[in-house]
Amino acid sequence: MEKNYSFTFPVTEKRDVVILGGGPAGVAAALAARRTGANTLLVERASYLGGMMTGGLVVSLNGYRFHKNYVKTRPTSNWDTPLLVKGISLEIVTRLQKEKGTIDQGHLGDPSIRENFDPEIMVHVLDQMMEEEGVEVLFNTFAFDVVMENNVVKGVVSANKSGPGIVLADVVVDATGDADIAARAGVPFAIGRDVDGRYHGGGLMMEVGGIDIDHLLAYLKNRPAKTEEEQK
Questions:
Q1: pTM for this predicted structure
Q2: Separation CA 156–CA 41 (nearest Å)
Q3: What pLDDT shows up at residue 75?
Q4: Do residues 134 and 124 touch, judged by C-beta distance below 8 A?
C-alpha cells in the first residue's frame, strides 16, 4: 500500500558558508572558510570527523612528498624529495605529530612520504581545531536536498534527531564522499570508470592489538625459508 506524505520544512538558520561532509576535504574547507571570518557550519552524517580517514581506518597520510617510484620505495619513511603539500593539510599532520598520533621520527612539521597515524588521535585533533577556530559542527545530521533559486543553490535540507530543517547559506560546499548535494542541484556526474562503469574495489581495514612486537620482529628476521610447496 502506497502512502503519501507532505512536510513543511522550517528554515532553522542562515549562514555565510555551509560545508557538507566532515572528511579530509570538509574539515580543510571549514577551517579555510572560518579563517576568512565567515560564519561557518559543518554538517557531518557520522558522530565523528575525518570520514574514511578515521572511521574507515585508512590510517596512512600519503602524498606529502614527490616520489616517482612511491610504490616501490622501501622504506616509505624518507625525506629525500621536496615537500609538496602544505597549508591546512600540513598543519593537521603537524598537530597530529605533536599529539603523538604518529611515530616520532624527529621531523616535526615535515612529514615523510607516508605518515601512519592513530585514528582516535586524529579525531581528537580535528575536534580541537574546529573548536579553536569557532567552526560549529552538526554531527549525526544527513543533508539530502538543496534549496534552489534561479538555478543557484541557496541552502540545504537536512535532518537529525531534532527533525528536518533548512539552512540557508551564501556558499554551499559539497565535500561529501559521493557529491550527493551537487547531484541534487543538477550538477552532471559520472558513476564508475568510463570503459564499463565498474567501481573501485572495496577493501577491509583492521587493527590488531596485544602483539608482542619484539617477539614478532624476532620471528620475521629468523623465520624458516618456505618450502617449494609453500612458495607455490
A1: 0.84
A2: 11
A3: 67
A4: no
